[in-house]
Amino acid sequence: MTRKDKVLAAMKVLGIETSCDETGVAVYDTEAGLLGHRVHSQIDLHAAYGGVVPELASRDHIRLLPVLVRQTLEAAGCSLQDVSAIAYTAGPGLAGALLVGASFAESLGVALDVPVLPIHHLEGHLLSPLLSVRPPSFPFVALLVSGGHTQLMSVSAVGDYVLLGETLDDAAGEAFDKTAKLMGLGYPGGPQLAALAETGVPGRFALPRPMLRSGDLDFSFSGLKTAVLNVVSRPDWSDTDTAALAADFQEAVVDVLCAKALGALKLSGLSQLVVAGGVGANRRLRERLDAAVSKVGAEVFYPEPALCTDNGAMIAFAGALRLVAGESGRNDASVRVRPRWPLAELQRPNREQDRLPGG
Ligand code: KG4
Ligand code: ZN
To answer: Residue 306 C-alpha to ligand 1 middle, in angstroms?
Structure first.
């Protein structure tokens, strides 16, 4: 191991995630792994409004970020002086919420005189299965299924992402959330709809499988939501049918996600599939993907359950991988976020290059 490697091996990266309705903080040590992480969910705060209220989200991040940083450092057995670098989510996400994490991280970086790295939220998600006990290795296909995104990417290395297909309208998580809302379920809808689906038997409602045979790897979920709306608007609709409808909705989403993920493996010739993002927690999706992927002799990898939804660990980890691969970070107190930021624009870590998000 060279001297440079030794220095890098000892780095502790503080990760900060504030892109939406979860405040996440973590410390990742490039030698010892994840030392600690804390997530505070704002579900209770937004529940009364049936969805995330951006201004309330920002204020709650401001309130809790310093507390979580203190608690996480304590749990990790280190102090602020031990932090060698800071990684924060710079986008995509809610502008105000992102600005809270960005300003906090950038100012702390100046105060501690350590490099600061702006991280793409979806890069955090797609690299998070590498934190598992049984991690995949590059290259792999990533199925990113969150509340804001549904994408299939070919991943060759950190920062080397090629978009294979994406949703043309709603994201899979968004479809779960919106469908749950129109079925009268509470917030957050996705997990509640999934839980209800577990109690129902699919096969009663003929719902569409949008773009299943489109011949490409793109998705569309808004028509499926409309099909459910048509069912619940029928005069003979009964509340006692909700579990069966939830099961049919889930089955339709899972059918399409499985078929397209398999299509991506076939097209790319790769044999590892990584599933990341909140919808990746869906039990039925996992069951179906496990079966379908093993049938074609490939393997599927998921993040640890606690790291499926938004968290600081995946951001600290992505920052650590970038630092180790040669990215230098910066330390100039410039707070820049990018609420819309295509993942395929990312590049491999490069010391010479300024990788600031453009805004
Ligand atoms: O990745 P994530 O925590 O946040 C975003 O970056 O969007 O994903 C949240 C999304 C929400 O739409 C939520 O309803 C969905 O993931 N979700 C689920 C499940 N758990 C979370 N959807 C289906 N089944 C689940 N078990
Ligand atoms: Zn996310």
So the answer is: 12
Rounded Cα distance between 65 and 120, Å, is 19
Residue type, 226: T
Q: Which CATH number characterizes residue 104's domain?
A: 3.30.420.40
Task: Mark the residues whose beta carbon lies below 5 A from ion ligand 2.
Answer: 146, 310
Q: Distance from the CA of 278 to the center of ligand 2, in angstroms?
A: 6
**Atom number in ligand 1 closest to CA 172:** 12
- Regarding whether 143 and 119 lie in a shared domain, the answer is no
Q: What is the distance between the alpha carbons of residues 43 and 34, in angstroms, rounded to a whole number?
A: 25
Q: Is the CB of 191 under 6 A from ligand 1?
A: yes
Distance CA(321)–CA(33), nearest Å, equals 11
- Helical H segments across 269-351, by residue range: 283-295, 313-324
| DSSP strand pairing (140-145 vs 272-276) | parallel
Copy the structure tokens of residue 171.
């994201």
Question: What are the tens digits of pLDDT across the range 180-194?
Answer: 999 999 888 999 999
Q: Which ligand is nearest to the CA of 146?
A: 1
Domain count, the chain: 2
Among 40, 145, 176, name the best residue to mutate to test ligand 1's pocket (greatest count of ligand atoms within 8 A of Cβ): 176
> 128-145, pLDDT tens digit by residue?
999 999 999 999 999 999
Question: Residue of the nearest CA to atom 2 in ligand 1?
Answer: 278
From the CA of 283, give the closest atom in ligand 1.
Answer: 26
Residue 152 Cα distances to 218, 275, 351, angstroms: 8, 9, 28
* Cβ atoms 151, 343 nearer than 8 A: yes
Residues 108 and 220 reside in one and the same domain: no
**pTM over 0.85, yes/no:** yes
Judgement on whether residues 194 and 255 belong to the same structural domain of the protein: yes
Residue from 40, 143, 221, 279 to probe ligand 1 pocket by mutation (most atoms less than 8 Å from CB): 279
**Spatial separation of the C-alpha atoms in residues 76 and 85, rounded to whole Å:** 15
Tens of pLDDT, residues 4-36: 554 555 899 999 999 999 999 999 999 999 999
